[in-house]
Structures are given as C-alpha cells and as structure tokens.
Design brief:
By secondary structure, the protein is mainly beta. It has a two-stranded antiparallel sheet. It has a two-stranded antiparallel ribbon with strand order 3-4. The protein is built from no helices and 4 strands. It is 0% helix and 38% strand. It is rod-shaped, with a radius of gyration of 27 Å.
C-alpha cells in the first residue's frame, strides 16, 4: 500500500480500514495514521572558537557545526571572510 498525502493535509490522527478480498476470503486491517505539523526551515550554527594567539600571518583552526533542524533537506552555501582590521577597546 502506498499513501500520497495532499500538500494541505491537516496535522491530526486519521483512522481508516484497509479491506482485502479474494478467493472467497476477506481480511480487514484497521490503521491509524498520525500526521504531524511540518517544521519550518531552521538551522543552527555553533562554533568551537577557543582563545587564539599568533602572528598576523598565522593560520588558525577551529571547528564549526551547522545543523539542519527543519523537516526538509536544504542546500547551503558557506562563505568565509577575513577582517582587515581588528580594534580593541579598553
């Protein structure tokens, strides 16, 4: 059995019965289908950024985690940039 849900189906629990018949026999199977509300696209980005020290032309490494917290697959483009000047306020 294959179910195709309409795009505007309401979040709810649906009860129905599937009946199969043939060769003088019949079988019934009660089913319960729960449709949950679809989550909106949502992403979170966490960065493990320790305190780093080094020369201006040094290389620094850190870890970043991008998590898809929605219900659908997403395509994501990530871009990185470098600050040209860092000002320190005391």
């Amino acid at each position: 059995m294959k179910l195709t849900l309409p795009a505007d189906v309401a979040a709810d629990t649906y009860h129905f019965e599937v009946t199969a018949a043939g060769s003088g026999a019949q079988a019934k199977l009660p089913l319960e289908l729960t449709i949950q509300q679809k989550l909106p696209p949502n992403m979170s980005l966490t960065v493990d950024l320790p305190t780093l020290r080094g020369k201006p032309d040094g290389t620094f490494r850190f870890n970043a985690t991008l998590k898809n917290e929605g219900d659908e697959d997403l395509n994501v483009d990530l871009l990185a940039g470098v600050l040209r000047r860092v000002y320190r306020c005391l």
